[in-house]
Amino acid sequence: MKNGFPGFPREAVAFFKNLEKNNRREWFQERKPFYDETVKGSMTALIEALTRDMMEFAPNYVTDPAKAIYRIYRDTRFSKDKTPYKTHIAAVFPRRDLGKHSASGFYFSVSHKEVEVAAGMYMPAPEIVLAVRNRLAEHHEEFREIVDAKTLRGLMGDLQGERLTRPPKGFAKDHPAADLLRYKQLLYYKLLDPGIATTPKLYPEIVKRFRALTPFVEFLNKPFGMAAKKAASFLR
User: Which of 106, 169, 175, 177 has its CA 20 to 30 A from that of 195?
Assistant: First the structure.
């Protein structure tokens, strides 16, 4: 399909259902060639197709599939759940001049249970949160216009994220952006019917949401994009 993606093969999505029932190393290792070729291979094709559209509306977030796709191996060091594998495949698209999880970016995942599309800052470091809060304090009206946009709300719902019970230290309680400054996370996520994963509908559903989310992600990354440009200029 030109500028599109036909959907994951049904057996690729069914793989995760079977993995959920057989989440152990021996079972996975026997089927790793299938995972690499059919599941991960399909994800790579989807990201390559997505790249062509993102070059138009979010070129700074175009990411090589090899770097975008998360590993299937779970980090079980601090988890009571010791199953070794994730039962979904996911990809992240950070801003190219920033770290993979240092600021805000786009994300989507596919499994037998759901398709998730998301964007924003999920687990930001304290210095990232402070920089974004300072930007919100100065440009809260611009931010409200972005998050109140009809298209964004229609496609992604309301702004999400953990919040403090009161404005953080250093900001007045009566600040006009007090409600926004309480956020510790700023993100959107939408769960879609898993049935679309094996159809051509998957691709446009992701694209139109990424497109609508771009002003939101760019707003959050503005302080860091400016810092990166200054650093690059200095190094010249």
Answer: 106
How far is it, in rounded angstroms, from Cα 28 to Cα 24? 6
In angstroms, the Cα distances linking 182 to 99, 176, 185 are: 24, 12, 9
Render each residue's pLDDT in the chain as its tens digit; 236 residues: 456 899 999 999 999 999 999 999 999 999 999 999 999 999 999 999 999 999 999 999 999 999 999 999 999 998 999 999 999 999 999 998 887 667 899 999 999 999 999 999 998 889 999 999 999 999 999 999 999 999 999 999 999 999 999 999 999 999 999 999 999 999 999 999 999 999 999 999 999 999 999 999 999 999 986 544 443 333 23
In the numeric block, which tokens belong to residue 42? 């399909």
- What is the value of pTM for the model shown? 0.92
